[in-house]
Write a structure and sequence with these properties.
With 370 residues, the chain is of the alpha+beta class. The protein has three domains: 86 residues, Trypsin-like serine proteases (Thrombin, subunit H), CATH 2.40.10; 98 residues, Trypsin-like serine proteases (Thrombin, subunit H, Beta Barrel); 96 residues, Pdz3 Domain (Roll). The chain is 21% helix and 37% strand. The protein is built from six helices and 20 strands. The strands form four sheets. The protein has a six-stranded antiparallel β-barrel with strand order 1-2-3-6-5-4. β10 and β11 form a beta hairpin. The longest helix is centred in the N-terminal third of the chain and has 44 residues. The termini are far apart. The N terminus is likely disordered.
């Protein structure tokens, strides 16, 4: 009797297990069907699109801007014929330095003392080794800058910076061809050591002053003249021009802002006709060099009035102080030059002149600087 009860219990357990397996199988089947239905609904409601491959990030090297600027530096050489006969002509290099390509169609900025006056010629060597005859289309001895034109299109050129945004102590780089082309495109690093500097130059018995210069301790050697002074964006902020020979780490560059009106006209019209005022003046910082007992608070001191210039018949004389041009305040000669460069010959300007505690307004018709 006891044995039969055990047997009956086993049979009931087996049946329970069997039903449980069937129920689990049915539930699993139902669950899979529900998932398939949901997937079908999802695919029906949403479009499927492959993701694009992520774009590779372009990593710019820390000093790539220097390499880019170096490609715009050219070699400048000036030759002089020293012997000529029926068989051959011998020449001698009388000037060698650097220049910077400032437009893609072959305008090059360099120093006046390298290439000489307007209409003179020189030889230009690009970074790829190509050589061209260059023609000087504009030159100003007073600020030691010249613009040379070579044939070409799509030339790599430097971007222009803003000198007025240059800060004391910021990093700068001088690029040029020191000691000739053997060390071409040499880069030296320094800082902006001073702004609006004035230096006195005595050359061939002639005394002159260069004003509004950028001072730097970036090494500048013979041959660097005409080369670029760039900021840490690779932008041109000045043209290296001169150094103090009996001191270490004192070099100077002419600020780029002064010639921007000329460059703009060359880009937009292909030519530049220089307007002429006919005065030579000094910043107030130069006055102590001329007369230690005399000083001015603002304006430009008129030193010389050209007898063939437009100002000569206007009544302006040596010793006057020009404080404004067309209502624009003047404190530096570079301000006046930049404004005149933006004008055309024949246009009229109004000069505010201070003399003996009185102000006068004089209208002058600009001439042509041939």
């Amino acid at each position: 009797m006891y044995y039969e009860n055990i047997k009956e219990k086993k049979r009931k357990n087996i049946m329970a297990i069997f039903f449980m397996v069937i129920i689990i199988a049915l539930l699993t089947s139902i669950n899979l069907r529900i998932q398939l239905i949901n997937e079908k609904n999802i695919q029906g409601d949403y479009s499927v699109q492959k993701l694009e491959n992520p774009k590779e990030e372009v990593i710019v090297g820390e000093y790539d801007f220097i390499r880019e600027a170096c490609d715009t530096i050219v070699g400048i050489s000036k030759l002089k014929t020293i012997e000529k006969d029926l068989i051959e002509e011998k020449s001698q290099i009388i000037g060698q330095g650097s220049g910077v390509i400032i437009t893609d169609n072959g305008y090059i900025l360099t120093n006046h003392h390298l290439v000489g006056n307007k209409y003179s010629s020189c030889y230009v060597t690009l970074s790829n080794g190509k050589k061209f005859d260059g023609n000087v289309i504009w030159s100003d001895e007073n600020i030691d800058l010249s613009i040379v034109k070579v044939p070409g299109a799509a030339l790599k050129h430097i971007e222009l910076g803003e000198t007025e945004n240059t800060k004391l102590g910021e990093d700068v780089y001088a690029i040029g061809n020191p000691i000739g082309f053997e060390f071409q495109r040499t880069v030296t690093k320094g800082i902006v050591s001073g702004l609006n500097r004035t230096i006195k130059i005595e050359e061939n018995g002639k005394l002159s002053y260069m004003e509004d210069l950028i001072q730097t301790d970036a090494t500048i050697n013979t041959g660097n003249s005409g080369g670029a002074l760039i900021n840490n964006k690779g932008e041109l902020i000045g043209i290296n021009t001169i150094k103090i020979t009996d001191a270490v780490g004192i070099g100077f560059a002419v600020p780029i802002d002064i010639v921007k009106p000329i460059i703009d006209k060359l880009i937009n019209t292909g030519k530049f006709e220089e307007a002429y005022l006919g005065i030579y003046g000094y910043d107030r910082e130069v006055i102590p060099y001329l007369d230690g007992d005399f000083e001015i608070e603002n304006g430009i001191y008129v030193d010389t009035v050209s007898v063939d210039g437009p100002v000569f018949d206007s009544g302006i004389i040596s010793g006057d102080i020009i404080t404004k041009i067309d209502g624009v305040d003047l404190n530096k000669m570079s301000d006046l030059r930049k404004y005149i460069y933006s004008k055309k010959p024949g246009e009229k300007v109004k000069l505010t002149v201070h003399r003996k505690f009185k102000d006068y307004v004089v209208e002058v018709k600009l001439g042509t600087n041939i």
